[in-house]
Amino acid sequence: MHGRRLATTEEVVAIVTPDSQDALDRLESWTTTHDIGLTVVEIGTDVTHEHVSEARETIGVTIGGDGAFLEGVRQFTPHRVPVIGVNTGTLAFLARVDPRDLDAALTEVLRGRAVVNTRQQYTVQTAGIDTTGVNEVFIEKTPPDERHGTKVGSLHVFIDDEYVGEYFGSGLLVSTPTGSTGRSFSNRGPVHYPNENRSLQIVPHETINASASPIVVSEKSDVYIVLDTEFNVDIDGGREYKTVGANEVIHITGASNPAHTIRTSYDDPFITALVDKLGWSLRDVDDAGPVDALPSEDTEIDFLTRACRVAREAARSAGEPLRELHGKVEQIEYKSSKSDIVTEADYQAEHIITTAIKNEFPNHGIRSEENVSSAGSGQYIWSIDPLDGTGNFTHGNPNYAVSIALIDADKGEPVVGVVYNPETNEMFYASDGNGAYQNGSPITPTDRDRLDESMLLSGYDPDGGFLSVFYQKTQGVRRLGSAALNLAYVATGSADAVWEYDTYPWDVSAGICILREAGGQVTNDVGERYAVNLDASEDRTPLLGSNGTIHEALLEHLSDAEL
Ligand code: IPD
Ligand code: CA
Ligand code: CA
Question: Is the beta carbon of 403 within 6 A of some atom in ligand 1?
C-alpha cells in the first residue's frame, strides 16, 4: 500500500461551494455525532492559522467539484493539512467521495483506516504570476480581437539548459501526474499512474508540428517557455488566469512541498476511475482481474499479524513529526534528572501512536512512557516508548526509535514488537510464532560463541563496570543510546549481545519480542528468562540479550563487573 496511515482526526475544516448545502448538513451532523470540531470556510475565503490549530490533528474537506478540491489543495497544503474531496459537481477525478458516502468515508478516516498520499505539485513564475498548483499550467494563445485574426502563435521550450524547439500552435500544457487525466489527456498526453510519481509533462496543444510528442521530465527539471507573442496562462483550470506578453519567460518546475490527499475505500481506485469516467476500454468497471492473481490486503489475517501491522503503521505515522522536529531546537522538559529529558516530539509521537491504537483496539490497555495510560478490559496491553533515545534526538543524532509492543498479560510476554528508526527507515518487527523481520526480510542473530570475537552493545552503565570488564574481553563495547535499537541490532546480527543496567517495560518489550523471534535469548543478570513486569516500573530490571550462543559466557563474567 502506498501512503501513510492517517492516525488521528480531531478537527475538520471544510471549504464549501454555495450549492452544496445538503452535503454540508451531512458533514455537520457527522462532526457533532463524533464530537469533532468543524470550521466552515466559504470557497474564495482564505484558510488561515485561525482556522487550523497546530495542536489538533486537522483534515480538510472540500465539498464541490474538482475546482473546490484544487482550491482546497492550494489552501491546505501550506498548513500541512491533508484533503479529502466530496463531489457535488459533475465529472470529478479528484473529489472522489459521493455525498451519500460522506459519513462512512469520514468514519473510516476517524478510525485510522484512511491513507494519506502525496501528490506532486508545480511552481510557476512569470510576469504577474508566482504560485503553486497541483494539476496543470495551460498556456493558450490569446484569442484575436478580430474573428478572422490569427489563433496560433509560437513559443520556445527549454528543459534545464537544453533548447527543445519552437512549438507553433494554439498553446502548450505543462501538467503534473495528477493533471495528466485532464486537458493534457485530451491533447494525447500520456496518463500517469499517480503513486509516488514525481514528474512533469509537456504536451503540445493543437500544435501545427504534428510530430511533436509529449515529453515527460523529472520534477526537478526546470522548464522555461519563451513566448513569441501574447499568451494567456491558466493555472489549475482557472484558479489564476493572466495574459502574459511577448518575450516573457514562464518558468515551471516541481514544487518542494507535495500536496497531501486522503484516500478511503470509498474512492474508486485509479484505473477504475479511468474506466468509469473516460470510457477506458481495457476492462469493465467491476473487473478486478484474474481471481487470486494478487495477494489482497483484505484477506483475513490472524489477530497478531493485524496488531503488528497496526503497530507498524502507527510507528511510521509517528515517524513523520519526529523526522521533522529532529535536531531542531524545541521545548525540552527535564523529568527527574538532566539525563532524563522529554521533548515536544515525545508528546506528539505518543499522541499519534496511542490514538491509532485506541481507534483500532478500543478494549486494549495502554501504558505509554510519557502520560498515556488506560486500563483496558482484556488480556492485551500496549507498552509504548514513543521516542527511545531522546538524548540522541535532541542532539541531532539519528540513533533514536519508536518502540511499540503488545503484551499478553495472561502469558506475561510481549507478543508483538515494532522498533522503527525514522531517520534510516529501518522497520524491525515480530509477532509471536511468526518470525522477525527488517523491512520485510527475515532477520537472525549471529552464531558467534567466542567472547574475544564478539561485539557488544550496552546501555546506561553508571560506574562503567560493564565497559571495564567486557572491553578487554571482546572486540568492543558500543553505546548507541537507544535500548530498543540495541535489541533490534542484536536480532539482525550487527552486534552479538546487549547489556542494559536498568530497563523499563516500554524501553525493551518490543525489542525483546523481536530478538526472541529472531532466535536470540533475553534474560536478567542471573540468567532467568526476562519477565516484562508492567507494574514494577520503579524497580531496576537488568537485561542481557544475545544471539543465544554467547549467553553463558557473558553471564559467567557479569559478576566480575560488579554491576
Ligand atoms: C533511554 C534509552 C537509553 C537507555 C535508558 C533509557 P529514553 O530511553 O533507551 O539507551 O540506556 O535506560 O531510559 O529516555 O531515551 O526513552
Ligand atoms: Ca526509552
Ligand atoms: Ca522515551
Answer: no
- Domain membership of residue 507 (yes or no) is yes
Together in a domain, 319 and 412 = yes
Q: How far apart are CA 339 and CA 401, in angstroms?
A: 17
- Greater confidence (26 vs 210) lies with 26
CA-CA distances (angstroms) from residue 344 to 56, 318, 349, 357, 405?
A: 14, 13, 9, 20, 22
DSSP string, 409-430: TTTTEEEEEEEEETTTTEEEEE
What's the CATH code of the domain at 394? Answer: 3.30.540.10
The whole-number pLDDT of residue 434 equals 93
Q: Based on the fold, state whether residues 436 and 512 are members of the same structural domain.
A: no
Answer yes or no: do 114 and 179 share one domain. no
Interval between CA 393 and ligand 1 midpoint (Å) = 11
Same domain? For 187 and 248 the reply is yes
What is the tens place of the pLDDT at every residue in 435-467?
999 999 999 999 999 999 999 999 988 888 899
Is any ligand 1 atom within 6 A of the Cβ of residue 482? yes
Ligand closest to 387 (CA) is 3
Q: Which ligand is nearest to the CA of 335?
A: 1
Beta bridge partners of 223: 159, 252
Mind listing the pLDDT tens digit for each residue in 77-119?
988 899 999 999 777 778 889 999 999 899 888 877 788 888 8
Residue 534 confidence (pLDDT): 80
**CATH, residue 218:** 2.60.200.30
For 531, the domain range is 451-558
- pLDDT on residue 356: 84
Residues 144, 249 within the same domain: yes
Pick the atom of ligand 1 nearest to 389's CA: 15
Atom of ligand 1 nearest to the CA of 481: 10
In the chain, the largest separation of any two C-alpha atoms, in whole Å, equals 99
Same domain, 412 and 319: yes
Shared domain for 377 and 469, answered yes or no, is: no
> CB neighbours of 30 closer than 8 A, spacing ≥ 6?
36, 102, 103, 106, 107
Highest mean pLDDT among 1-5, 263-267, 323-327, 518-522: 518-522
**In residues, how long is the chain?**
563
Backbone angles phi, psi at 448, to 5 degrees: -65, 140
Could you tell me the pLDDT band of residue 432, with boundaries at 50, 70 and 90? Answer: very high
State how beta strands 83-87 and 341-343 pair: unpaired
Q: What does the pLDDT average to over 373-392?
A: 91
Task: Tell me, yes or no, whether 497 and 434 share the same domain.
Answer: no
Pairing of strands 136-141, 162-175: antiparallel
Integer angstrom CA distances of residue 23 from 76, 84, 138:
20, 14, 31
Ligand 1 neighbour 389 (Cβ under 6 A): yes
Please identify, among 420, 440, 460, the residue that sits at the C-terminal boundary of a domain. 440
